[in-house]
Amino acid sequence: xxxxxxxxxxxxxxxxxxxxxxxxxxxxxxxxxxxxxxxxxxxxxxxxxxxxxxxxxxxxxxxxxxxxxxxxxxxxxxxxxxxxxxxxxxxxxxxxxxxxxxxxxxxxxxxxxxxxxxxxxxxxxxxxxxxxxxxxxxxxxxxxxxxxxxxxxxxxxxxxxxxxxxxxxxxxxxxxxxxxxxxxxxxxxxxxxxxxxxxxxxxxxxxxxxxxxxxxxxxxxxxxxxxxxxxxxxxxxxxxxxxxxxxxxxxxxxxxxxxxxxxxxxxxxxxxxxx
Length: 275
Known about the structure:
Blueprint: E1 2-5, H1 8-17, E2 21-26, H2 32-44, E3 47-52, H3 72-83, E4 90-94, H4 98-101, H5 120-123, H6 127-142, E5 146-150, H7 154-166, E6 172-176, H8 196-219, E7 234-239, E8 252-261, E9 264-273
Parallel strand pairs: 1-4, 2-3, 2-5, 3-4, 5-6
Antiparallel strand pairs: 7-8, 8-9
Helix pairs in contact: 2-3, 6-7
């Protein structure tokens, strides 16, 4: 069963009949990566809520808020098709208005968390405060048992986990592996801004991360020449569990990078087991 929940009143009515919710927060324009999150929730929960809301507070001035792709009918169609393979499950598609999400002072939801000002937060200083604010608000409205996030936005998962732990919300954050295009480019709604040639050129990010992985495995941390990667907006090697800077004693790492192509900042990362 699928229901479109257009406002908080319909959301609350839906929640009266459904408990133990798996939650997938999105900004719409769904691709295979998003659908993988929905599929994981359907497999683990009887009821899933997918939110589709382009959140203005996580866009800085001059970013692509106005042109960000909005494809609600197509999104609903894709979720409906996926649900057909899980006939006994339930999905609510929550499509709130700004008033539903921000009825008054949303600052009470903007819990500053560790790592919020690093890497992506350095490039987009207001981004994570907007993410934390809207995710906290959505958690407060929906009260899910589990919430599903894609690993492409690895730092976002870290920031949200920290917020959940600091506020003792009792929600399990479930990371899902990166979905990729056939050529290996990490799927993103913003890939639609790129031509096929630009997508091919954007693979420079993935190839760089994989080359850093090989250097680490063969020669260790001291062999990494960060100056040679100055074409990236950042390159960072972190402990995959704690997100602290990795060192020779770290057993599982994540290599993160950000690369600009045609004015679009692209994210990717590679996880590596050192031991």
